[in-house]
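Re: your question from the hallway

Yes, I did run it. Sequences:
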Amino acid sequence: MTATASLPRARAPRKRKLSGIRQRETREAWIILTPILLYFSIFFLFPVISNFYISFTRWNGISGAPQWIGFKNYLQYLKPPYTLIISNTLLFAVFTLVFQTALAFLIAVLLNQKVKGRGIFRALFYIPTLTSAAITAQVAFAFISPYDGVLNEILKMFGHDIVVWTINANWMRLFIIVYSIWRGVGGPVVLFLAALQGIHREIYEAAMVDGASGKDLLWHITVPLLKPMIIFVLITGMIGSFQIFEAVLLMSKGGPQNKTNVMLLQIYNDAFVNTNMGLASAGSMVMAILLLGFSITNMRIMSRGQVIRD
Amino acid sequence: MQTKKRPITPARIIIYALLIVGSMIMAYPLLYAVLGSLCNIEDFLASPILPMPRHLYLENYTVMVTASFPIFLWVKNTLVRIIWYITIPGIVAVLGGYVFARLRFRGREAIFTYLLSSMMLPGIVFWIPTYIMLARWPGAGGNNWLGQGGSGFVNQWPALLIPGLVNVYYIFLMRQTFYSIPEDFEEAARIDGANTMQIMWYVYLPMLKPTITVMVLFQAVSIWNDYQWPLIVSGGNPDIHTVALGVQRALLAGASLKGWPPGTAITDYPFSFALATVASLPTILLFLWLQDYFVEGVQGFALKG
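Structure:
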């Protein structure tokens, strides 16, 4: 009897101690989280909700109150030039992404062939990513100057007529895509190279013993094993290239006739040049919706990382 | 006996050829700008494909000092932002990472998901309302208590320092790092009577150093290059321009002028390239110095998953 009576008594202090730890942890968590959540609510939750509301209104953001106009701002996005602007954005994003990812994959596979000076090559491919998009775009604009730009000098060298880039939509598009690839290829190279280095040599050696060719190794081992990384690069790349801004703002200003205009530039112009905050907010909502699928997949990848860790 | 030396096969020659050509294409614009910046205007115009300075010409750089060009003001402004945006989001990330990795309390996962959800939206969704909020801030910049009448914090320092202090990406990264540290260290320190602040400072901080370094580097590079937000909120006030905005505007202003304020209106490419070089070199040197940390940072959560 004494034994059974003493058992709960012996357990009691331990339980109290455990709940004491819980209490301390809860208290400390809230001391840290309160300012964070307060700030986050003012500068994340409140802006997001206001943005949603403003997108249904007409408002200059300066004076007066927002005036409810329903879906009118969103309907603008179904009409030209906004339809053209959306398709330009998609065009830039898809072309940049496809070529950039393929090139980065190729470069990473080459760098993985035990080359000398791998670090130097990797650095050379990554350095453009470290520069300011605004400054490199502005310098690139000097490169396409019609009469003293270096690109026309090169075209002349190949016997081609000079191109007035700012009035020739297709050349301008091509140049913006090439510039974007130049600036963006470094990140994927680093990622693919790291993933390639994570593949054990034994897998290749075993396959070679079985008589696999170099092409077999690439398509049946490298590509499948790198699939998660390829998906990650494509998704984050899509989210990134969809938000192309500086290159267009500083090189073509969206011209000629909106043929190189993109969503972020139009939203920027609507908001801060034309002070049409309602239309701009609607534009940002359209952009968020178009990217939603990619964003959700990205979040899934992130939280899967967390699940494995736990 | 196998030698370590690899035989020179046609395949290897092709690999090197492709890599060399590729990296030359990548380096060409940078090389062009750097060489161009070391030319006087005659040398520059003499060789259009790749400028070749016939003798070392540094005046494009020295003129920035002698003509009291505002690049030093821009650098100072940018450094203020870098220090601020390393310190505050850094502290938030370390403490936040600790809370979500180590402390058990009700609602932890829900709050973390709430924070993480912000990463699903493109930045522009916050920029417009945040801009309006800063412009209509009651009592600031000539505004009355309803936020009307003035321009609020727009074109003032607070606009460059208020947004983005809670960086969810870094909280996530820190949490992952805390997961990789065994809990035994903290328990041992608690038994020795250490409190949470002491544990953070003496136990965790030294172990978090690699992740903190990655964070500091990426934050420094991204604030140094930050253009969109400064353009929106500080475009009208040259006194608070940052490097990216100031240099871009200077390049645009006719890519023009060695004197400041503007004097002659000739297109002076060598001087423009000198400006672009000064603006780009710090991040590149930082990368070359600490390449391994950058590579680790790029891998960030791609590989940790």
